Amino acid sequence: MQLVARVSLVVVLASRLVATQGQPTASEGEVLRLLQQERPYHAVSSTVFDQLGWPLPDAGAAVKALADAAPGGAFDPRRLEAIPAQQLGYRASWREVRYRVYGLDWDISALHLTPNQPVAGLPTVVIINGGSANFYEFFVTPLNEPGLGQYLAQRVPVVLITIPGNYRHGGWTEKQFEKRIPGYLLDRDVSAEEAKIRHSVYTFRVVTDGVKKLIEAHTTGPVVVVGHSTGGEVQFMLKDSSLKDRLRGLSFGWGTGGPAALSTMREFRGERTADDYPAIWDLNPRPPSAYARGYLGPLNPVWDARQTRLEVATRWMGLEETRRPQFKQTLQNIEHNSADGLRDHVASQIRNVLKGNPYRIDPEEVIGDLFTTMRPTVSGYTKMIWTVAKLDDGHWNPDPAKAREVQVADQFRKANPGVPIRVLLFDVPMTHYGHIEKPRELAGGLVA
Question: For the segment 5-26, what is each residue's pLDDT rounded down to a tens digit?
Fold first, then answer.
């Protein structure tokens, strides 16, 4: 195929060329050349990767000043709306949607970024955070330098969604992460007793219902959902939802993996037992030690070769612990981990904690929604791309045949014969957190 216009990976997914200003750069052209080839995976060299991306109008200065001035970096995203779009390269809008599941109100929030000069015809890119993160991680780095979302928003509309509970205005100060109260409602903190109930009914239905309602309320036209890590389940679960026509059978991943029911995902995670998890009414804390292994690499903004990995992780998480939740709901973790063998155990806990509950939540309704992560179909896609970093050891492997993303893609290829399905490896020492390590270049790789 002749390259006659600048093209993005999202446009490759849409199977059409979009004319914009100028021709693709040499690095962009190389990425596009790779994607046109049918192979198990494609590697973007460090030479090509380092040339990807574009500058920001103010180099991120306005956002950094706002974040630096806030305690713990937990700046109020609503204040971004007052910064002139000419200074940022995009218009920032804060979104909140309240909705009901199991008779309870829940709030879901997002930072919506609209480019001043969007590439014509591109869909809105919706990014969903992983289990113990939120939108901040995709907007600023730990040092408050520009993050992935700021770069993407120079070219495409971006919606950075935070799943319910994982954002709280002003962040958290409780040092015992398991005792934090999630921001299930953004206008008030729920009580510890109410939080216990909410933890226990925090199925993926709570998340997907909220994501769907926010997208429907605040975007129009085609969308591409990119779920990172635990958030990856959502894009597969929404494929046949009321958003189906807008999603168009497209799938785009960054550190995403596959749906929980895939044999590849089951084999990777292994057999799980009840002893692997706290009770569903307790939060699963994520201390610095959880980030000292595969999540940490030499491109981390606070990397120091003189320190131990735990020391570096402690500094990294110390910078983030106010604005970052640092917890994961146990039920969410179980559903994400393909642990449907624990269905009866979880159902028993749900019935126990909901007995006589003041909110009149029907435990059988909640139990009926367990493991919706295992239900998405793997057929019916039109285009798929997974992107992954070299040091993301949960998604890549030095032996590519053993890499999770390659194995997941192979399963989708079998279910979708003839459909273009690609795996794009960024062959640089980035980890699962490449969006804070090399955000400019990563944005250029996603929108080449």
Answer: 344 455 444 443 333 445 678 9
The dihedral built from the CA positions of residue 46, 114, 163 and 301, taken in this order, carries a sign that is positive
Contact by Cβ (8 Å): 402, 365: no
Ordered by start, the domain boundaries in the chain are 9-446
The pLDDT mean for the chain works out to 95
**What kind of fold does domain 9-446 have according to CATH?**
Rossmann fold (3.40.50)
**Residue recorded with tokens 């971006």:** 158
Taking a C-beta distance cutoff of 8 angstroms, is the pair 323, 173 a contact? no
Which DSSP symbol is given to 304? Answer: -
- pTM value is 0.95
Distances 134 to 160, 212, 250, 264, 321 between C-alpha atoms, Å? 8, 17, 24, 27, 12
**Which positions ≥6 away from 98 have C-beta within 8 Å?**
105, 106, 107, 185
Amino acid letter at 422? R
The tens digit of pLDDT for each residue in 332-363 reads 999 999 999 999 999 999 999 999 999 999 99
